[in-house]
Every structure is written in structure tokens, then in C-alpha cells.
């Protein structure tokens, strides 16, 4: 009798265990299936996003589109070699990155260094973690393997090499709302103490557009006196026809299409700062590097689109419209809405 009860208890416990095991496993199967479906859905969305961005550029770059700008009809070979300095090449992974200042370029430059493994740390080993690479190296243009450097090394034989790489490598860039990028550039170079930009631009801007005949000789002196170019002065400088007669725009406010030549280079991937996290993850998966490279986190104080109204409050309507005309090609090529609120007040 005791043995029979023992068998019954064992049977019941076994049945309970099997039931629980089935329930837990079934939940895991359902969760796994759901995650796979969600992941597939996200991937489909990201692929469609890229297809839309690339289609828009191809459509606007076509000969019969309404978009017109000076270099649109150029071939790649007609682009001056000096204008190819923003194309960074990693031959090991067959990747070309066109960097755009004020669009997460510091972190993408770090990634390109880590991928190439050409840059050595003080101990002689290559940098493998992007975050380990010092900022002063990141922004030293002579340290990067660019198309311009290829031209300097190979002269007239460089163009066939460039064509081969453009045909066979994965090419990408990241872009940003043009007006927000300008605000970010102004904040970085003129609101923050920057001796180089004060010496090269700030002092001259104060003379021409703030009517200060003898501005302080250094940024530190100017800041102590409470003197700095305002955002309005900066916009006046950009709109002055004399500015580019003297020298081309600095890369931080140069139009993106003039830095990266999207009508001459068929980019495989177009990322945006506004969707940086999703686009970065997607691109690293495309490159097969998502398990090997951790993209550095961005700064919390990114300039936001909803700040535009405040920053442009003291800019006249006429100047806002002129500024839009100056950057209209970037707005259109990269799918940014025309800022109607700013232009139609």
C-alpha cells in the first residue's frame, strides 16, 4: 500500500514537472518568435528607409530634375583633388566614409581608425577600442588615409585607383538638418573659447559685421571683455558674397554636397544624426562589424531642431530666406523639410 502511494506521488510530481517545463519552454518559444518577427520588421523598415534616401538623391541628381547647382553635372573626375579630403578609406574592410563636421564625425573617425588598425597606441599596439583614441589625433587630418592623400602619393595614377575603390567599397556618410548643423558649428567655434577660430574668423567677423574696428587680439581677451561674434554676425558673414571670394567656407559650415559630392558618388548608405543610433547599428550589421565595434556614445548636449525658432529670432526674414537658398541643395538632397515657419513669418 505504501509503495503504491509512493508511485502515485512520483507520478504526480513528474506530471507537474513536465507541465511546468512545457509552459516555460513554450513561453520562450513565443518570446523568441516574437523577437525574431520584431527584428525582421525593424530590419525591413531600415532597409526601406535607406532605399528612400538613396532614391531621393538619385532622382534629384538626374539630368532632368528641377534641382540645379554648379557642380551637379560634374563627373567624379572633374572634382578637384583638393576637394576629396573628406573621403576616408579603410582598405582592410573595403569601406569609404565621407565625414561631415558636426555630424558625429569625431566618433566615426575613431571607428575608422580602429578598423584600419594603422594607428598605434604608445605601447606600440594598434588602437582597437574607438574610445581609447585621443581627440587631438582624431582631428588631425594628416593622420587619415584620404582620397586627397591617395592623389598626393600617386599623382595622375590616383584616379583609376579611386574609381576602383568607389566601385568596390561600401561608401557611407552621415548628414544633419542644415540649419541645426550651422547652429551647432556656431556654438562650438564661437560660443566656446576657441583661439584658432577667433583668430581666423571671429576677429574679422567682429570688424566687418559688429563695427568693432580693433577687436581684442585673442579669444581669451575678447571673452573677458564680454565680446564675441553673435549668431546674427555669423549669418551675415555666411551671406556676404565677399566671403567665398576670399576663400572657401570652412568645413564646419561648408554645404554637405560640396564636401561629399553625392551626385558624383553613389553612396551605399546615408545615415542621419536624427536617427543616429538606429542607422549606426544598421550600418555596422551591413558591414559585418556589429560584434567587433562598439560605436562610442554621443554627447547629451546635441543641438536640437526645436531650438531653431529661438536661434533665428534675431535674424531678419530676408536673411533667413537667403540662408535657405544657400543651403537649399542640402535640404533637398537629404530629405529635410523646408523650415516654413522660419521662412514665412
TrEMBL record:
- Main subcellular location: Golgi
Gene Ontology molecular-function annotations: sulfotransferase activity
Localization per record: Golgi apparatus membrane
Q: Which keywords does this Swiss-Prot/TrEMBL entry list?
A: Carbohydrate metabolism, Glycoprotein, Golgi apparatus, Membrane, Signal-anchor, Transferase, Transmembrane, Transmembrane helix
One GO biological process term: carbohydrate biosynthetic process
Q: Name one Pfam family in it.
A: Sulfotransfer_2
Gene Ontology cellular component terms for the protein in this record: Golgi membrane
Q: What is its EC number?
A: 2.8.2.-
Please give, as recorded in its UniProt entry, the membrane topology of this protein. Single-pass type II membrane protein
Q: Which family does it belong to?
A: Belongs to the sulfotransferase 2 family.
Q: What is this protein called?
A: Carbohydrate sulfotransferase
Q: Which organism is it from?
A: Danio rerio (Zebrafish)
Q: Per UniProt, what is the name of the gene that codes for the protein in this document?
A: chst12b.2
